[in-house]
Design goal:
Blueprint (H helix, E strand, L loop, with lengths): L5 H12 L7 E11 L8 E8 L2 E6 L5 E7 L4 E4 L1 E3 L7 H4 L4 H4 L3 E6 L9 H11 L4 E4 L1 E2 H9 L8 H17 L3 E5 L10 H13 L3 E5 L7 H15 L2 E4 L13 H13 L4 E5 L5 E4 L6 H4 L3 H10 L1 H17 L8 E5 L11 H9 L4 H14 L6 E4 L4 H8 L4 E3 L17 H16 L5 H8 L1 H6 L16 E4 L22 E4 L2 E5 L2 E2 L7 E2 L2 H7 L4
Parallel strand pairs: 1-4, 1-5, 6-7, 7-8, 8-22, 9-10, 10-11, 11-12, 12-13, 13-17
Antiparallel strand pairs: 1-2, 2-3, 5-18, 14-16, 15-16, 18-19, 19-20, 20-21
Helix pairs in contact: 5-6, 6-7, 7-8, 8-9, 9-15, 11-12, 11-14, 12-14, 13-14, 16-17
Length: about 550
């Protein structure tokens, strides 16, 4: 046998002894889970790698080395949940850990809903950014806030000058970072706004790339007409429309959830850019104010309280108006009304109005219930009395949930971990309730659609760039949950109870919930709208 040439032998030895390629390094790897990526596709096994605040790889990462590894075998890995209907506002400064949200898997929130937002939005967003917050935080500009700043609570159309000033304020808020404009058309002063006023303001929003989000004028017998009004506003303003917390409210319209779904689907087929959101409960929550005629509230809350307290004839008229409202909703009395927080009457928190009437007045007949509502309003001395209204039917919740372009959102604020109030349980359980009750137990929607409704759908609708999906280049907002165990535990009696089955939550690549406990991290970013980016680019 001839010997190998020296040069050949040397090359063989070099190849044989060449060092193996170094494994890729990551800051974080979530390994071995079922990735449901937010696109609506079924889940598949994959690892997810993070470097800095971005996802950099998805798949079988083999021997990749990570500074931290989360073992997710048997668990689902999804994009962080995006809640586009919250009432966090200034509480993001007071309670920046946003504990109730992150424990539900929520990594991004949008506030400024129902027509109410922080007035000095730019300064507020700058402070949230400076102080830090655990979730990504964006805001709409509230129509009611803008209108109050110009017109107070005047129950009339604006003058041409007033409308121009309102348009200037909306434009300024859009440049400061607002994602769009919200309305609360059952609340003072939004209830006094005519459709034409809203069209003109929505045109400003559209020019800045934002959307029109509306708590509609009626969620009961006039809900379909209210949908049509919102669609008209969007059409004439050239603005995308998003309908807040869709529902059929009141016994008189139970079963109309299917009609709501059909009207929205018809509008989409006709080319309307309309979406919506909902929470997954048969009770709503708002102020006690909504029981009273909006025309009487135009004087302002303090004057209304004073008149309600001193004028027997006026109080009697308000009692009759409250009872008439209950009758119109299909209820014989006010037992559907539950106190969440009554300043001056903490002992009533969690009670329904018949119980409150019995305790305060010694009677629980319908008239006494209405008089007790008046008493709570007066004794609060102008402060907000928060209520829960048990007015919806389960079949309507499910009918609306099946609509693929309706997102899931809590309609809740940031909460402290304790307190003597009894807020709606949606603020602690909404997302887990979808996964446990409506996916696993009732099979109303499949898991991949449920995840999409909490991730890419709301992120796309509100223009949250690079969020809502698991893919390389996306922000590393992730939630890891156990599909066999995840469930809400918050109830109307114990509304702060944490959900179970959501052990890990990651915001911008930073672990915020580890083994079910908040880490104290505040890696959230401020989410600014397209109007800000256009302003920074010189209006291009």
């Amino acid at each position: 046998m001839k010997p190998f040439p020296t040069a050949v032998l040397a090359s063989v030895l070099i190849v044989a002894w060449a060092p193996a390629q170094a494994p890729e390094r990551f800051d974080l790897v979530v390994r071995g889970g079922i990735v449901v990526d937010g696109s609506g596709k079924p889940g598949a096994p994959a690892d997810v790698a993070v470097r800095g605040d971005r996802i950099v790889a998805v798949g079988d990462l083999g021997v990749g080395v990570a500074a931290r590894t989360i073992e997710a075998e048997g668990l689902v890995v999804a994009p962080g949940f995006v809640d586009v209907h919250t009432h966090a506002d200034s509480d993001a400064v007071r309670l920046p850990l946003a504990d109730n949200f992150v424990r539900m898997g929520v990594t991004s929130i949008v506030t400024g809903n129902c027509g109410s937002s922080v007035a000095a939005l730019g300064a507020h967003l700058a402070r949230v950014e400076q102080d830090g917050v655990s979730v990504n935080y964006g805001s709409l500009v509230g129509h009611g806030t803008v209108r109050t700043g110009i017109m107070r609570t005047a129950p009339r159309a604006p003058t041409a000058g007033e409308l121009n000033r309102m348009k200037e304020r909306v434009a300024a808020a859009m440049r400061e970072g607002a994602l769009g404009m919200s309305t609360g058309l059952i609340y003072v002063p939004g209830t006094y706004a005519r459709t034409e006023e809203l069209i003109e303001l929505a045109k400003v929003v559209a020019a800045h790339g934002g959307l029109y989000a509306s708590h509609m004028r009626d969620e009961a017998g006039g809900v379909l007409a209210s949908i049509d009004e919102a669609l008209r506003i969007g059409s004439e303003a050239g603005c995308r429309v998003h309908l807040s917390h869709l529902k059929a409210s009141g016994r008189a319209v139970w079963g109309d959830g299917a009609k709501i779904a059909a009207r929205l689907e018809q509008a989409r087929r006709a080319g309307a850019q309309v979406t919506g959101d909902q929470y997954l409960y048969t009770a709503s929550s708002t102020s006690l104010d909504v029981l009273f005629p909006s025309a009487e509230l135009s004087v302002g809350r303090k004057e209304f309280v004073a008149k309600l307290g001193r004028d027997d004839a006026f109080r009697a008229a308000m009692v009759e108006a409250v009872l008439a409202g209950a009758k119109d909703a299909g209820f014989a009395d006010l037992a559907y009304c539950q106190v969440a927080h009554a300043p001056g009457h903490a002992e009533c928190n969690g009670q329904r109005l018949p119980q409150v009437a019995l305790a305060l007045l010694g009677h629980d007949d319908p008239s006494a219930q209405a008089r007790a509502a008046c008493r709570l309003f007066v004794d609060a001395e102008g402060r907000r009395v928060s209520m829960i209204y048990h007015k919806m039917a389960e079949e309507d919740v499910e009918s609306i949930l099946r609509v693929p372009f309706v997102a899931v959102a809590s309609d809740a604020g940031i909460r402290s971990r304790s307190g003597d109030d009894r807020p709606h349980p949606r603020g602690a359980g909404n997302n887990a309730r979808l996964l446990g009750r409506y996916v696993r137990e009732r099979r109303v929607v499949p898991l991949e659609l449920a995840v999409q409704k909490m991730t890419s759908l709301p992120a796309d609708v509100f223009g949250l760039a690079d969020r809502g999906r698991i893919a390389p280049g996306q922000f590393a907002d992730l939630v890891v949950f156990d599909p066999r165990r995840v469930a809400d535990r918050a109830t109307y009696e114990d509304p702060r109870a944490d959900p179970i089955g959501i052990p890990w939550v990651i915001v911008n690549g930073v672990v915020v919930v580890a083994e079910g406990e908040h880490t104290g991290a505040k890696p959230g970013m401020v989410l600014r709208g397209a109007g800000t980016r256009r302003s920074e680019a010189g209006g291009k």
